[in-house]
């Protein structure tokens, strides 16, 4: 979907949503990525644009409420831990 190469991934958590005719399972991860190239299109046609944003601006782009706040808080904790491990190299 994003045309990104995942260099590192750390699981934050998961959600399970029960709907009348299906169950939806989603994971949330902190990922270190790099683009393969420019975003052209999503094969499923659902994603129209990929926007890389500063984590401090995520609330302007996502309406996830308290859950989103906690996900981002944890992602930033994991990123800090990752950066510490890399700097010790």
Structural description of this entry:
With 89 residues, this protein is an alpha+beta fold. The protein has one domain. It is built from two helices and two strands. The protein has helices at residues 58-61, 65-88; strands at 4-18, 23-35. Strands 1-2 form a two-stranded antiparallel sheet. A hairpin with a 4-residue loop joins β1 and β2 (23-35). The longest helix has 24 residues, at 65-88.
Q: What is the CA-CA span between the terminal residues?
A: 31 Å
Mean pLDDT: 91
Radius of gyration: 15 Å
Number of domains: 1
* Strand percentage: 25-35%
Helix content range of the residues, please?
Answer: 25-40%
| H-E order | EEHH
Strand order of the largest sheet: 1-2
| pLDDT < 50 runs, ≥5 residues | none
Give a nutshell description of this structure.
With 89 residues, the chain is α+β, with helices and mostly antiparallel strands. Helix content is 31%, strand content 31%.
Give descriptors for this structure:
89 residues, alpha+beta, two-stranded antiparallel ribbon, 2 helices, 2 strands, 31% helix, globular
How is this fold's topology laid out?
Elements: E1 4-18, E2 23-35, H1 58-61, H2 65-88
Antiparallel strand pairs: 1-2
